[in-house]
Amino acid sequence: MTKQPRKSARGIPFLIALGFTLAFSSLSAAQEWAPSKPLHLIVPYPAGGTSDTIARLIAPQLGEALGQPVVVENKTGGGGVTGTEAILRAPADGHTFGIIASSYASSVHLVPDLPYDPVKDAQPLTLVTRVGVALVTNPQFPAKTLAELLEMAKKDPGTIPYGSAGNGLSGHFAGEAMKLAANVDMVHVPYRGGAPGLNDVIAGQIPMMFNVISSVMSSVEGGKVRPLTVTSAQRSKVMPDVPTMAEAGLENVEIYEWYGLVAPAGIPPEATGRLHQELEKVLKQDAFTERMEKQGIEVVANSPEDFATFISGEIERFGALVKSANITLD
Predict the structure, then answer these.
(1) pTM as predicted
(2) What pLDDT digit, counting tens, does each position of 281-324 carry?
(3) Domain limits of the chain?
(4) Residue 266, number of CB atoms within 10 A of its CB
(5) Hey, what's the signal peptide range on this chain (predicted)?
């Protein structure tokens, strides 16, 4: 009979110590990882937009922290699909990452033959910002509150138009979510961007539109449009007198336009850790947060794990809304 070796109590402290050593080594690896060449921050949208502005605010300070320049590249086309594919198909070595927007979660339900899997092909880094959507009307429009608007819509179904910055964008989703929650019928009028739609509201060509708070704020302050409600969970700090959809009794109308950073799936865990670590520092600097908050934009800067959960939740939520409201890009 083979004699089994005795288990020594001395081995237990050794294993505990080994566990702490391994954990410390993993943390150190994340802290010590450094890029060996310039990094590329891909923006799938044109220069001058919100995503481009965020990228160009982040890049210099992130580059300084990592010891390599961060080069911002605008790769447009396909409503953001072309640039997003470039991010997710880049070498998974930690040297390429990029910005995604809320349409990243809805495109899987709207774009035929999407050339990537938004969950499997991405390594989330952090949710950078989010901003609610405001419903604004021409000052001469009869409805002064959301309740009055919904009453009008119920009396004359299918006759009141609302504008948005385009099919499948946050304003469109906000409008359709409101219609479902309130059981009203209104006509969606998509524009090629938020500015043309807002100009038509101001000119009285269309009575109202859903657009992100940061894009309508100056027109609200100037009295050119009247805000009726916002889709964020809480009232906006820059429009504290404007009630939320939830306050009006409408559920499931919490819609945001958001921006986050992802890398290709499979990048080294230590690269994910270091990139997130330095990004969090940059995003939480007063200069960045104050600039965003002045526009009504909330800085989030959450963990890669939390951002991954958020993306999956948004994909599921937008999918249900696309199906219920029969939303298309046409």
Answers:
(1) 0.87
(2) 999 999 999 999 999 999 999 999 999 999 999 999 999 999 99
(3) 37-130+257-325, 132-248
(4) 10
(5) 1-29
